[in-house]
TrEMBL record:
Signal peptide coordinates: 1-20
Domain of life: Bacteria
Protein name from the UniProt record: Peptidase M14
Pfam family, one: Peptidase_M14
CDD domains (UniProt xref): M14-like
Sorted UniProt keywords: Repeat, Signal
UniProt GO molecular function: metallocarboxypeptidase activity; RNA binding; zinc ion binding
The organism of origin for this protein: Litoribacter ruber
GO aspect biological process, one term: proteolysis
Domain Peptidase M14: 66-162
Length: 484
């Protein structure tokens, strides 16, 4: 009897331990946590240092966090580090060393909220992290770049090419934090342009990953192997949520970059790059994905679960490519002079920062056989002829409504002129010009994408600065244009 009881207890112990060690986190549960703990004061990706400072500093009141100012940026903005956890494994996470790559900073704010919660069904995850990890977070390494929403710092240096020279105070701060702490694991958090796709597919690389090389030979030592395995775990979760939308970054060694050098200095370094997702211009969905994969990875490091993964599975992740465009028009007929030919047209809309907003400037990226390119938006324009728009020259004195702008398009105008316009940017699907000669269009690579698509002499589509407007069913959203 006693023997049986012992066996039973052993059996229970075996299963309960086995369960605790082997169970992977359910991504739906992590999604729930993301919804619950999303920092509501940040709603778009152009937030500034001043917006996150209160969220960092208020953690001083929470004994679970230690908040420390590490130093200041070129322009005097404080860079903080938050510490959390009582465990042995040292993990460092830093975000936004490129000022306009803000997605993961939002996720870190959400993670701070999550770590402060309790009695919400997530305590086991939190406890595993708190008991096993010694965490250091450095959100927004480049606050001056964030202020201007640009990549580089106030010296116009790319911090990710300054890991060795350490010319920038921000680079010295990051290196100093690393040297003090000597993390075993590091998360290097960036954004990539939205035009990355998983190679040979139309799927955007919504998240790209990399365990950077530490030498030109791209060797795999124990340090890099740990990073490769953590990434395999992240990829497994992502494949369940966004199948096919993960890309692997090129692992060519960059001797000046932080990620590569962290790996070289002995920190198993994981690069996460947030890319594009259809209909998510402010990357609020990708913010959730970051929350989910970062927490998942922290949990798997805390429990050492990631050790189960195979290095080969990392190399199975498709490579990144950059074959996406905002708008792909297939089989457009171009007639000019006495020439006639049929091409695919790939159009991108580049974001440009304005004072308090941003606008886009479109251009034809390429034309011809673009079968290896893919559009976030695609139209088969078989049977359609590209035609030029007109500019309404008499100066207007009233702002147009969206409906009126579309009426102008239907009459063949792609631009309207004003002597004066009160705003610098607008959201109308028509070019607003202060002088007639600022209107640009064309049918060659690099041209601004302003034209109509006609069939049997009828205008069915307007392409206004790269935005597609279906004139028979005009629903226009998300247009961001400048006043010329
Ligand atoms: Zn970057």
């Amino acid at each position: 009897m006693k023997k049986q009881l012992t066996a039973l207890i052993l059996l229970i112990l075996f299963f309960s331990q086995g369960h605790a060690q082997d169970s992977k986190l359910d991504h739906r549960k992590l999604k729930e946590a993301s919804d619950k703990y999303k920092e509501s004061s940040i709603t778009h990706r152009r937030f500034k240092h001043i917006d996150i400072m209160p969220l960092v500093i208020k953690r001083r009141a929470n004994k679970d966090f230690q908040v420390e100012e590490l130093g200041k940026s070129v322009e005097g903005r404080e860079i903080y580090q938050l510490a959390y956890g009582n465990g042995q494994k040292r993990v460092m996470l830093w975000s936004q060393m490129h000022g306009n790559e803000s997605t993961a900073t939002m996720s870190l704010m959400d993670i701070f909220n999550f770590l402060e919660g309790k009695n919400d069904g997530f305590d086991a995850i939190r406890k595993a992290i708190e008991d096993n990890l010694d965490l250091r977070f450095i959100p927004m390494v480049n606050p001056d770049g964030a202020e201007a929403f640009k990549r580089r710092n106030a010296y116009d240096i790319d911090l990710n090419r300054d890991a060795i020279h350490l010319t920038s105070p921000e680079a010295r701060i990051l290196k100093g934090a690393r040297d003090n702490f000597e993390p075993e694991y590091g998360f290097n958090l960036h954004d990539q342009q939205i035009y990355y796709n998983a190679v040979n597919t139309a799927k955007p690389a919504t998240i790209s990953v990399l365990a950077p090389a530490f030498n030109f030979e791209k060797d795999i030592n124990e340090v890099r192997e740990r990073a490769l395995k953590v990434i395999v775990g992240m990829n497994e979760v992502l494949q369940e949520i966004i199948p096919g939308q993960v890309g692997k970054y090129d692992d060519g060694f960059e001797p000046r970059a932080f990620g590569d050098n962290f790996q070289k200095w002995g920190t198993s370094t994981i690069l996460i790059e947030s890319g594009g997702y259809p209909g998510d211009p402010d990357k609020q969905y990708i913010r959730e994905l970051n929350f989910i994969i970062i927490l998942n990875a922290l949990y798997e490091i805390a429990t050492q679960q990631y050790g189960q993964y195979a290095v080969e599975d990392y190399f199975e992740i498709p490579d990144n490519d950059t074959k996406l465009v905002d708008l792909m028009l297939r089989n457009v007929t171009i007639k000019r002079d006495d020439l006639e030919y049929k091409v695919d047209l790939g159009i991108r809309r580049r974001e440009v920062e304005a004072d308090s907003a941003y606008y886009t400037e479109s251009s034809i990226l390429d034309l011809g056989d673009l079968s290896v390119y893919y559009g976030y938006e695609e139209l088969d324009a078989e049977g359609y002829v590209m035609t030029e728009g007109k500019v309404w020259a008499p100066a207007m004195d009233m702002k147009l409504s969206q409906k009126e702008a579309i009426e102008m398009l239907k009459k063949g105008f792609l631009g309207v002129t004003y002597d004066f316009y009160p705003d610098k940017t607008h959201d109308l699907p028509i070019n607003i010009l202060l002088e007639n000669d600022e209107y640009k269009s064309g049918h060659t690579v690099g041209s601004t994408a302003n034209f109509f698509l006609e069939k049997n002499g009828e205008k069915h589509y307007a392409i206004v600065n790269g935005y597609l407007v279906d004139l028979r069913n005009p629903e226009v959203e998300g247009v961001r244009m400048r006043v010329y």
